[in-house]
Amino acid sequence: MKVTKQKLHKLISTKLTRAGLTTSHADVVADVLVHADVRGVHSHGAMRVEYYAERIEKGGTNVNPNFTYEQTGPCSAVLDGDNGAGHVAAKQAMEHAVNIAKENGIAIVGVRRIGHSGALSYYVQQAAREGLIGLSICQSDPMVVPFGGAEPYYGTNPIAFAAPGEGSSLITFDMATTVQAWGKILHARSKHEAIPDTWAVDKNGANTSDPFQVHALLPIAGPKGYGLMMMVDILSGILLGLPFGSRVSSMYNDLTEGRNLGQLHIVIDPSFFTDLETFRRNITQTMRDLNNIKPAPGFDQVLYPGQNYDIIEQENEANGIEIVDEVYDYLVSDVIHHNKYNHKDPFAT
User: Which CATH number fits domain 2-274+312-332: 3.30.479.10, 3.40.1360.10, 3.50.50.60, 3.30.1370.60?
Assistant: First the structure.
């Protein structure tokens, strides 16, 4: 089913409002989810709505959070999200980070005690649209085996980066520190499709192509991805005084409780380090240089990091966003949720 951005936004916002979110918070969550879907990252788009709705309705998302913000130094601050919708807290924290960076050249803003906040590319693009460099990282629940291990310890612990080029152009890179994000497994399940057997392992630690048999994910590039997810967990968990590693709350275990997740935004104003126009021109030149590199056999063109999603976004803006029928049917239904996520293990079906 293809829908426009505007229609998808309204469907998501309406469903979340009916579940209990305020209209203003539901609109922000819808912004972030539609951002993901329009870029083809459906694992972080509308397919998440029913899970959010169930957590909201059962009290695990605070629908009237008291966000508190403390600037702890000239370039540092912490926003406590009071276990409200993570998307709203993360967006507000990035707004603070942008303001600090414009004044002082750099900002580091931690976000404490939030729920799932969706695609990190949304937040780093907030900074890039202001002519700044954005970097965002966040912890997630343990579902990845450490290199050489047979039990999950870290989460998919993503990293996102964006920088402004000339005009309105941005370069955006968003990745999980696993071979593939857990949301991509969920997307495969929703479409009943097999996954590459390099993404995950089953309960015996053997590689699997069945998304319904996944027991743990694999770190990207073995020990290198393992090290990156450790770094993310320290900077967005331990640094903010939050649960870490295997102590991070499960997405599904108890939907009546807040998740207490952490996120960290780092924002840099290039004008404090170099000429801004030259910086933006060189970002655009980098993008052109990469596109002009001779492609290897089997490739039509070299794309700069994240360009594949930029291309999908342009196509979906023009032609509509393809949404799985099951997800669309749920969004247009009168059902708030089907009571299917609470008290499941991290690999709930």
Answer: 3.30.1370.60
